Amino acid sequence: MKTLSITLLMVLISGTVFSQNRQGQNRATPPPIAERVKTTLEKLTSELSLSKEQKESSIKIFTDFYKSIDNLRSAGNRPDRSKMNSISLKRDKEFSALLNEDQKKKYNKLKDELFSRRRRPNQ
Mutual orientation of helices 101-115 and 81-96 as an angle, nearest 10°? Predict the structure, then answer.
């Protein structure tokens, strides 16, 4: 009986340790940066009526943005909120410089939907 109890205890402990080690591995891998940039620019182009020049200039801005965000997240820990905000502000400033006043207003309304990490019901 004592051997059975010890065996059961060992199984429970090893199961608990194993599940704790796997918690970080259950996160979904984000799509490649080029795909995220393409998706973002498709949405922005249709919503803001971006010109060809605006779209081409935006590629570097959004590529740099997604690379910076991925670098912060790659550390494995929860990224520093102030650094994330700084990266987002830089993106907004650079992208807004390309836009006219009407486009800027539309972008300010649209950016929360585009860049929010909140889970949406259909995902």
Answer: 150
pLDDT digits (tens, 9 = 90+) for 15-33: 665 555 454 555 678 899 9
- The Cα 50–Cα 90 span in angstroms is 20
Cβ burial of 103 (10 Å; 0-12, 13-18, 19+) is: buried
**Mean pLDDT score across all residues of the chain:** 82
Return d(Cα 65, Cα 90) in angstroms, integer: 8
How far is it, in rounded angstroms, from Cα 70 to Cα 54?
Answer: 24
Residue 88 near residue 115, CB atoms below 8 Å: yes
Could you give phi then psi for residue 75, rounded to 5 degrees?
-65, -20
